[in-house]
Amino acid sequence: MTQAAHALFEEVCQYVRQSSLLASVGSLLEWDERTKMPAAQAEYRAEQATLISGMVHQRWTDDKFVAQVSEVAAGPLASNGDDETAVTIRRLKRVIDKKIKLPRSLVEELARTASLGQSAWELARRENDYARFKPFFSRTYELKRQQAEALGYKHSPYDALLDDYEPEELTGNVARVLADLREQLVPLVAAIRSSGREPDTTLLAREYPVDVQEAFGTEAAAAIGFDFLRGRLDVTAHPFCATLGPHDCRITTRYDNRFFNAAFFGILHEAGHGIYEQGLPPDRFGMPLGEAISLGIHESQSRLWENLVGRSRAFWQHFFPTAQKRFPVALGNASLDSFYFAINDVRPSLIRVEADEATYNLHILIRFEMEQALLSGDLTADDAPGAWNEKYRQYLGIAPATNADGIMQDVHWSAGLVGYFPTYTLGNLYASQLFETADVELGGLHAMFACGEFQPLRDWLREKIHRHGQRYSASELVKRVTGSQLSSEPLLRHLRGKYGEVYGI
Amino acid sequence: MTQAAHALFEEVCQYVRQSSLLASVGSLLEWDERTKMPAAQAEYRAEQATLISGMVHQRWTDDKFVAQVSEVAAGPLASNGDDETAVTIRRLKRVIDKKIKLPRSLVEELARTASLGQSAWELARRENDYARFKPFFSRTYELKRQQAEALGYKHSPYDALLDDYEPEELTGNVARVLADLREQLVPLVAAIRSSGREPDTTLLAREYPVDVQEAFGTEAAAAIGFDFLRGRLDVTAHPFCATLGPHDCRITTRYDNRFFNAAFFGILHEAGHGIYEQGLPPDRFGMPLGEAISLGIHESQSRLWENLVGRSRAFWQHFFPTAQKRFPVALGNASLDSFYFAINDVRPSLIRVEADEATYNLHILIRFEMEQALLSGDLTADDAPGAWNEKYRQYLGIAPATNADGIMQDVHWSAGLVGYFPTYTLGNLYASQLFETADVELGGLHAMFACGEFQPLRDWLREKIHRHGQRYSASELVKRVTGSQLSSEPLLRHLRGKYGEVYGI
User: pLDDT-derived band of residue B18, with 50, 70 and 90 as boundaries?
Assistant: First the structure.
């Protein structure tokens, strides 16, 4: 009996590895499309990508495979607690269950609406024409309600959607912590704004030659632990990190020769994602224990390196002299203090992707609250732009003049990604929780950074987070490592400590 | 009946297009492997490539598909002469027939021997240890004899192998023309060597900054008509041209900052291949009428742009002033004449890939003659190194000191590529035949080149060669365009004319 169960489990694993192998080919198609492909190839590339993703989807929903997973999950191997086999079976069963709960007609309608919705959104945003986008926006939320009902949920329909990005997390828990955060963050940002202090950000808008930015960014990414022997850095329009195999993780950025932050902090951010991917066990590649557990944990890794490390004074105590040598025109006569203040400018703004470390989370809060209201039906597509603007006024003290710079600024809702936004702030929260623990366990991270020592932190993260893959859920993992549940306190402590000093509040 | 035949034909075409779509994904895997991929990914990339090529192979040998092609080929649509449908059917039938004639066990043994053979060859070449390579070399020719017998042939077993690279060409025909060529070329090269003249080739070994080489090579490739909106240029170790879709053709090169020729003429060569690929009808992509007809015709396009255009005085009358501006240190005080002489240095040498335009064909002749002798059994693997060295002495007046620089210098035989070599010289022969005709029809190509006008020649080639895909066999095509069969005369006229002037003979 057990022997047969083992054989069946091995067959399932072999099948999943082959599916992942095929999916990794799709990842190369996408990486190439976004970095190297001549634009004229777009149409044929779409056919190539559709072919591969169709084959991958077909494999995951194959009747025989689904039956085998169900059989293994009902068998003796599934009940061995934290044993690798049992965890693997549970994770696979979870994926399968979600796939088979969704009727094919709904999956197709979601895909069709996302495709049409994105095209409509692009045009609507360009022309600031919300009316053009509205029907797709309404339809998306209708379908998302159906998706939530089909999947089932514990307390709220939003649980079912959040689960796609943050498995096993609950809306109520996130809402509670984010409400705490909002209560503290809104007055903190207000205090910063009324501090009377402002950095000279023009020094970030001087001449930063692109090739030097690339060399400096590469040096910094390597220093924090991104392994260029198992990865690369390329240029793209909308930066991302792609994993193409157990030893091939590629990060991307875009350069602006008159703005330092975009590429540099973007590279640290993507390198953070990449370091997580490179820290997953290569021999489990394509299996649950070789894959990232959640978007929140993934984002915690990128934000940690981008913000908690990359925007710290200690980091620049080490790197600023190099930056001055590399960018003599821009930084030759700047001081470390003025540079540090400039990269930590806090300023309420309308566009999420350009927001600073503190106000960023308010952008997310607004989206998270609106998503729940839109999904429950408390808010309609007609009233959504007004609600958006009102929340911006309330939390950030400013409101957009156009819907293009307001409710239509993000691609997510047009693409059917509902429940995704909170993972950005979960990332910030987890990052601070992990950083505080690492700081205690390793004994003073900033002193290490000031000497250019980043390896201890990377190794700690590898040991505590990366190597586990999907063995523990995100919240279990953070609890095991930090001893605490999700909490807004570490992030708030970090922000208060840093900005208290910078802004003298 | 005809309606059913049309429906079946359409189904076959649809299937073939899907197979090509999948194969094009494999081409991306290979392009990426050779240009961008981190070396650490090699093992997983091999798995990805094997998966895709296995699926493509499975599709081509699928029983239902094979039966459908046979049915269409036996039906009314196949007999309409030069009609597109009839040609398509004949080409597909040809491919299928060759595939089904080879027993699976032989295909697998060939693949296994090629894989082991290449590994053994790499090591054997590095250590100059022919004995290590010999068993694989013998075995390869044994298997190639079996392959030829399984496929069948008209006059000689070599016909069956040649057909893989130069469909419908016959060994006897190629042998006759290459023997003509040899009789004239050996004394021509000897006359050049005893002319007493020698160019100063040191000016090609001055400082040529890599980034400037890239910019200049790109400018030249664009000038001769490679479309960078539908392609790109990257760096690799062993340059190649890859087609990934109807509007995505990528060329590659390698740079040596102390040698001008390698990258520049390499780029023109690959751009020549690329211009052919870009000239195939995009709406026939993945079907016989959208694919190159033979390696000989492909090579005729690369050699034509590399040698007949790129090494002409007229080309440099236009480009030399630019080259001087771009490379002031290397060429600032060089004359057009000295530069032109240097890039047309004729010098018997041991290594095929480094050979000049004239002696190159003697390297090919040696290989072509040896392949036939090895296949027939007239020559054994034991005697092959001696035969190789003797032929080098006879045709080129020099002989290698080691087998590494002799019989083991090329990858082809270790990889099971027998019958491939003559297509290089077929390319040179066809290039001269086509160039002579174009020169007459367009009225003086060199005068155009001197003014930087390359578009008329590219458009002529597109009209006469590229757009036909596989509609005509290589020899039919050249006969249609030039009025002549394969002949050594145009190439000899070109070489005599050029070197007669350069070397005063």
Answer: very high
Tell me which residue in A32, A38, A285 faces B28 most closely, judged by beta carbons: A32
Q: Helix, strand, coil shares of chain A as percentages rounded to 5? A: 70, 5, 25
- Please name the helix (run of DSSP H) or strand (run of DSSP E) that holds residue A108, with its range, or none: helix A104-126
Distance CA A122, CA A138 (A): 16
Q: What is the ipTM of this complex?
A: 0.93
> Residues of B with CB below 8 A from A236's CB?
none
Using the beta-carbon criterion (under 8 Å), do B24 and A246 form an inter-chain contact? no
B463 carries an active-site annotation: no
Indicate the residue of B25, B38, B47 with minimum beta-carbon distance to A232. Answer: B38
- Min mean pLDDT across A224-233, B107-116, B180-189 is at B107-116
Q: What is chain A's mean pLDDT, rounded?
A: 96
How many beta-carbon pairs below 8 A join chains A and B?
92
CA distance B53 to chain A (A): 12
Q: What is the pLDDT of residue A483?
A: 98
Among B28, B32, B40, beta carbon nearest to A247: B40
Contact state of A244 with B36 under an 8 Å Cβ cutoff: no
Helices (H), B36-75: 42-60, 63-74
Among the listed residues B166, B169, B270, B436, the single catalytic one is: B270
Q: What span, in angstroms and rounded, lies between the C-alpha atoms of A297 and A429?
A: 10
Closest CA to B360 of B178, B490, B482, B201: B178
pLDDT, tens only, A248-268 = 999 999 999 999 999 999 999
Contact B434, B182 (CB under 8 A): no
* Digit-coded pLDDT (tens) for B220-268: 999 999 999 999 999 999 999 999 999 999 999 999 999 999 999 999 9
A245 interaction partners in chain B (CB closer than 8 Å): 41, 44-45, 48
The DSSP string of B77-109 is GGGSTT-HHHHHHHHHHHHHHHHHHS-HHHHHH
Kindly report the number of other CB atoms within 10 A of residue B401's CB atom. 11
- Say if residues B435 and B175 touch (Cβ distance below 8 Å): no
Interface of B with A (CB under 8 A): 18, 21-22, 24-25, 28-29, 32, 36-41, 43-45, 47-48, 51-52, 228-232, 244-248, 285
With a CB cutoff of 8 Å and minimum separation 6, the contacts of A268 are A217, A220, A221, A224, A305, A306, A309, A310
The span from the CA of A430 to the CA of A436, in Å, is 10
pLDDT in tens, B396-446: 999 999 999 999 999 999 999 999 999 999 999 999 999 999 999 999 999
**Among partner residues A41, A245, A285, which is closest to B247 by beta-carbon distance?**
A41
Rounded to an integer, what distance in angstroms lies between the CA atom of residue B182 and that of residue B176?
10
Please tell me the predicted confidence (pLDDT) of residue A81: 76
Instruction: For residue B489, give Cα distances in angstroms to B183, B346, B431, B436.
Output: 12, 19, 12, 11
Cα distance between residue B324 and residue B335, in whole Å: 9
- B449 CA: distance to closest CA in chain A (Å): 28
Phi, psi for residue B232 in degrees, rounded to 5: -155, 170
Cα of A210 to nearest chain B Cα, Å: 15
Contact A418, A161 (CB under 8 A): yes
Give residue-wise pLDDT tens across range B83-114. Answer: 999 999 999 999 999 998 999 899 999 999 99
